[in-house]
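Single Protein Entry

Contents — chain, fold
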Amino acid sequence: MNLLHELWEALIYFLFPPRCPVCREIVDERYQICSKCAGKILHVDFSNEKFHLIDRVLRVTKYRGGTRDLLRKLKFDNNLRVVPALKKILDDVDRREEILSLLNGIDFVVPVPLHQSRLAERGFNQTEEIFAEWFAKKNLPLKNILIRTVETPRLYSFGKSEREKILSGAFTAVEELDLSGKKILLVDDIFTTGTTCRECAKVLKSLGAEKVFVLAFASDFGKKFDD
């Protein structure tokens, strides 16, 4: 039985070898990013920019090329088939010093919420699809304690000042909470100007949160790109 299974696996590998989801080069494992693409995409680093109400921002990847394509398929095409590739990227950076430093002492994780209408349209929160399983392995609970009360347009065509006007007061807590002394990690798929995360941090700190950090799957830190 094991022999038959191994022969079947070998046949599948021969007929449909695993390929890098970015460039389609043959790789060793399903959903693995090849070393060439990883060198271009993976960029686990903290932003040097200071963001009001946000204590630190870390990105996993650059929002370029393959990463941008994968996230666009997820967000705009509702294509959940790209999620395993995004999760594999997280697994590949799991033990990076920057990741360990950021997660040290975190009480819980809060995903940036979608407005109810956008959630109904898409059927899922893309940030939760990317991060939930990864944080579960770390015993860090994901808590949906924020809601988006304002239905906003897609923000990729707006500059920073316009985003600030659109998003002002767009988030609130689901209930009155005491977050005194808590260190909270906000997670989002894409970090652009920081306006969305800052508005979320404003709510969390108004409830007493001591620190609010941000982990973004992708960012180009200050450069204009889709949100």
Notes: The first strand starts at residue 42 and ends at 46. The radius of gyration is 19 Å. Residues 52 and 94 are 28 Å apart (CA to CA).
